Description:
- By secondary structure, this protein is an alpha+beta fold.
- The chain has a domain at about 15-170.
- The chain is about 65% helix and about 10% strand.
- It contains 18 helices and 8 strands.
- Strands 1-5-3-8-7 form a 5-stranded mixed beta sheet. Strands 4-2-6 form a 3-stranded antiparallel beta sheet, covered by helices on one side.
- Strand 7 and strand 8 form a beta hairpin.
- Helix 6 packs antiparallel against helix 7 and helix 14 runs parallel beside helix 16 (about 395-410).
- The model is unreliable at about 430-435 (pLDDT under 50).
Amino acid sequence: MKKLYNRITAFYNTIKSKIAFYPTLLSLGGFLVALLMILLEKEGISRKLIEIFPLIVIEDGDTALNVLSTCIGGLISLMVFSFSMVMLLLSQASSNFSPRLLPGLISNKKHQLILGFYLATIIYNIFTLFSIEPSEKKYTLPGLSILIGVLLTIICLSAFIFFIHNISQSIQINNIMDGIYDKASKRMEEVIKKEKENPTAVVESFPDTEGWTAYISPKTGYFQNLAEKNIMDICEKQETKIHITVPKGLFVLKNVPILKSEKALSQEVIKDIFQNLNFARGEYIEDNYVLSFKQICEIALKAMSPGINDPGTAINAIDYLTELFALRLQKSDSGVLVFDGKAKIRIAVVSFSELLYYVMSSLRTYCKHDPIVVQKLLWMLSYLKQQPCEVDSYNESIEREISVLMKDVNFDSPTDQRKVEELATSLGDGSFGENN
């Protein structure tokens, strides 16, 4: 039961980012509420309402049919228009910023809830419409159900105003980067907190996996997440340790070794382990903070492309990258997971050096012709040198990137070249705080 719960939790974390998740749940809710109201109407709830508040109950059957038909038709038009705006948002974000942003925008919970509420109200009104029976008696009309349907429609109109406001904010690049930064920082803080809670000696006691038995992947897709507790239970039962040799977010091909075990395991046990690994065709920052660096870096690269030529956005993106790298400095590269004081699982991680190189190599290629952006990169690297880090080798990686950046830049203007070299010299002398 516990294993099933952990798998369901991992599956929920995967599907909750789909655009149809919340609309499906709310639609089911609208259907169930409609059935509940039909049962209550059979108990005569509308008859009692007419006796207490006769003014709010529709007495004419034709009027009730017209009101509900109008509500249904209007809500369908509203929903189509709202969905069209979502598609426009995704199209603009893909063309102006980066296609990698689409999964995060699609998984916007507010948009999903509003679209789902539209759909739930439409379904509720449709089933309420079916329950209206022609008769001359007032109390045969589902008066309370009709009233609730009208109120839900009014709420949908109010939600549409909020939807317009929210979607106009969502397309702004600063808000997009804010959202990416918030998700990534929360994820990294969770990982850092877990590392701080674990004894260093336990983490460092994880053995070398060079001669361990390797097992191939039965699936193809992005390695998104894993049910850590389930795999830990398997390791305890089999008295072994597991090393997952690919980091989260890497695209895994079928029949490629991605798993090592300290002891040889049966095919049944290996199958059980792979059932606790989630593979998907998409990536989400909530599962893999490295994706945030890729997304913000690609926003900067898109902004520096000749077709857009927006250095201001690139500079803003570098500011966000600076904060994320400063947070990443506090995390180690071990990838060892500790449960109850025992280190049984290791996951390959993208090291700080690799992550910094990935970002800087891309930015150097597209930004080395702009002296202002190059100076901003120097400020970023110099700032990172001043921050506390978990591993001393992180500073060596930063120094190496500064050296490579200065060798790579070559401006046509001697003034620009001199200014950048003077800045690099001053930062190297430790005068970052004075100039800042």
